[in-house]
Amino acid sequence: MISYSVEKEYQGLVDAYEKAGGDRSALLSKDVAKLVIHQNKVLSADGVTGIKIETKETETGVNIYFLVEEGAKIQRPVHLCFGVLPREGLQEIILKVNAQDNSEVNVIAHCIFPNAVKVIHKMDAEIEIGNKAKFNYKETHYHGDFGGIEVIPRARIKVGKGGVWQSTFTLSQGLVGKLDYDFEVFCQDKGIAELVVKAYGKGHDDIKVWEKIHLNGVGARGLAKTRLVLSDKAKAEVKGETYGNAPYARGHVDCIELVNGTEAVAKAIPIVSVTNEKAKVTHEAAIGSIDKRQVETLMARGLDENEAVDVIVRGLLR
Amino acid sequence: MLEVENLQLRLNGKLIINDLNLHVNKGEIYGILGENGTGKTTLAHLIMGTNNYKPTAGRIIFEGQDIADLSVSQRAKKGISLAWQEPVRIEGLRVGDYLKLSGNNFGIEPVKHCLGMVGLEPAQYLNRDIDNTLSGGERKRIELASLLAMRPKLAILDEPDSGIDIISLPLILNGIVGMSKQGSSVLLITHNEKVAEIAHRVSVLCAGKILMTGAPAETSLWFKNNCRACVHINVPVEEAEKL
Ligand SMILES: Nc1ncnc2c1ncn2[C@@H]1O[C@H](COP(=O)(O)OP(=O)(O)OP(=O)(O)O)[C@@H](O)[C@H]1O
Ligand SMILES: [Mg+2]
Predict the structure, then answer these.
(1) Torsion-angle region of B35 (φ positive above 0: left; ψ -120 to 50: alpha; else: beta)
(2) According to the model, what pLDDT value does residue A31 have?
(3) Between chains, do B101 and A311 touch, taking CB under 8 Å as contact?
(4) For residue B166, how many other CB atoms are within 10 A of its CB?
């Protein structure tokens, strides 16, 4: 349970969580597995049948062990909430995930740094998805408008035979600050990996996205998808790599970067490689300004130009 | 309500719209019938203000005001809208939200009704995106539904029949007639004389010029005998006579 001394911190975080679009009732519900961490303090960590969450506080963060037991099909999404409320702070999350064979779970994570002037949030994850296990991970960030934040998420994900890993990382509220995203997935036979990153860079935001998918098993499938919108002086570099190393492996890299204004800078570097003659990997990357015809279509419905741009941007990042 | 006077557009030295005159009355369906490349879409752009087209001569008067210097948004707010010949795709924008954009319809019920009018089952389409997962015909229907939902004073429909299968065509044409019954004027652009038959009046366009205007039956016949039979496609009459 929550001890009195951290009650205030908990309330503050839950308030910010709700403001960021989180579901407050889920954090209070008994039959929802959840984990709430402020800086290096674990405010709540509750499993449900089929899910075990173990935590260990360190000087700079928290080590987490997250287990989904064999065959467990978790009905309600697991909620994770990581936050740093003060203006300054360091949060290092070391995460080990073991989703055993035939398990299924959806995880929704909110990362909340509303006042960050000098905050570093690091996540290092080792993730194992068992045979025929399904793991869906959605991480949404809520940053304030100060831009003083560095987000460094890294994950190594192993997907077993017929397993599925799907992750979506969204950072479109507040200033990004610095993002250095690096996810790498290894898929065995018929394993599926989908990595999606969506971010809206403004001000002096600096975005680096690196998605790597190794399709090592027969019939493995991968998608590395990125959607970025850049305005002001934001800059971004996206590297999407997919390796087709086995027969019938199918991979696709799909990157769209919209540049709004003349000072933002976008780069895309797709790398597709095939070492097996029966594998196939494709890529498409489009960098450019917002399509004039899209804007005019919306203007012809009565929207002003900036309202039209806003609808297009929100759609792309949805 | 719409008067186009001596309209001209010259692009790269070429006359695309050539001294064009027409007027559309309130609630009237006015057909523009012409073959490929005759200037139909260009005329639509000039009235809507899209594609950076500005008349090189002439005037476009809407409800008594010259609108040539208004932005696309301003024209839309005055009550003009356009359903494109080839509608764009917008990733992440839901059909339901697209239809609600104009804000002229209250709640979801009218939006559902408009989808039904173009033959799309609301439950199947409301939450889909208007991205490239829609077929060409579906996207065209949604474009028309979006104008039905908007109820503009003047709806410019650029080939609303293209991409629509023959079985569904009567439904689409019904929707357009319904629009005019609701009080919208419709500028109905088409190359199909069958489609033009639902109009009150029709003009035949060739090389950016109106060759004749009349009742649909009369115009259709004229179009068949003159344009369909003509060996020169989209060549100005004066030049064609010399050839
Ligand atoms: N920038 C340009 N420079 C020169 N000619 C142009 C330019 N843009 C369009 N045109 C020409 O203008 C003419 C009219 O084009 P428009 O798109 O209006 O035709 P349309 O009647 O809508 O044809 P369709 O039935 O194929 O849709 C065409 O002959 C086209 O080639
Ligand atoms: Mg056309």
Answers:
(1) beta
(2) 86
(3) yes
(4) 7
Q: What is the pTM assigned to this prediction?
A: 0.89
| Tokens, residue B55 | 């008349």
Structure tokens that stand for B18 in this block: 């050539």
Query: Across chain B, which distance is largest between two alpha carbons, in Å?
Result: 59
Residue B105 has pLDDT above 70, yes or no: no
Q: Give the B window 186-205 contacts with A, CB below 8 Å.
A: none
Does A300 reach chain B within 8 Å, measured CB to CB?
yes
Is the pLDDT at B237 greater than 80? The verdict is no
Q: Is A1 on the interface with B (CB under 8 A)?
A: no
Q: Is A296 on the interface with B (CB under 8 A)?
A: yes
Q: What is the CA radius of gyration of chain A?
A: 20
- Indicate yes or no: CB of A301 within 8 angstroms of CB of B81: yes
CA distance B102 to chain A (A): 5
* pLDDT at residue number A27: 84
Query: Quick one: fold of B2-87+156-241?
Result: Rossmann fold (3.40.50)
Q: Residue-wise over A249-259: b if at least 16 C-beta within 10 A, else e?
A: bbbbbbbbbbb
Q: In B, which residues are within 8 Å of A296 by CB distance? A: 50-51, 72
* Interval B122-170: pLDDT, tens: 999 999 999 999 999 999 999 999 999 999 999 999 999 999 999 999 9
Residues of B in contact with A300 (CB under 8 A): 48, 50, 72, 75-76, 80-82
B62 touches chain A (CB under 8 A): no
Tell me whether residue A3 is exposed, middle or buried, using C-beta atoms within 10 angstroms of its C-beta: 0 to 12, 13 to 18, 19 or more. exposed
How do B2-11 and B209-214 pair as beta strands? unpaired
Helix (H) or strand (E) holding A66: strand A61-68
Q: Do B50 and A317 touch (CB under 8 A)?
A: no
Average pLDDT, chain A: 94
Q: What pLDDT does residue A8 have?
A: 79
Token representation of residue B8: 């001209």
Domain ranges of chain A: 6-291
pLDDT of residue A5: 58
| Per-residue pLDDT at A7 | 76
Q: What is the mean pLDDT of residues A182-193?
A: 98
Q: Which two tokens stand for residue A180?
A: 């250095």
Q: Whose CA is nearest to atom 30 of ligand 1?
A: B37
Residue A201: closest CA among A177, A224, A182, A225: A177
- pLDDT of A1 over the 50 cut: no
Q: Please report which helix (H) or strand (E) contains residue B193, including its range.
A: helix B193-196
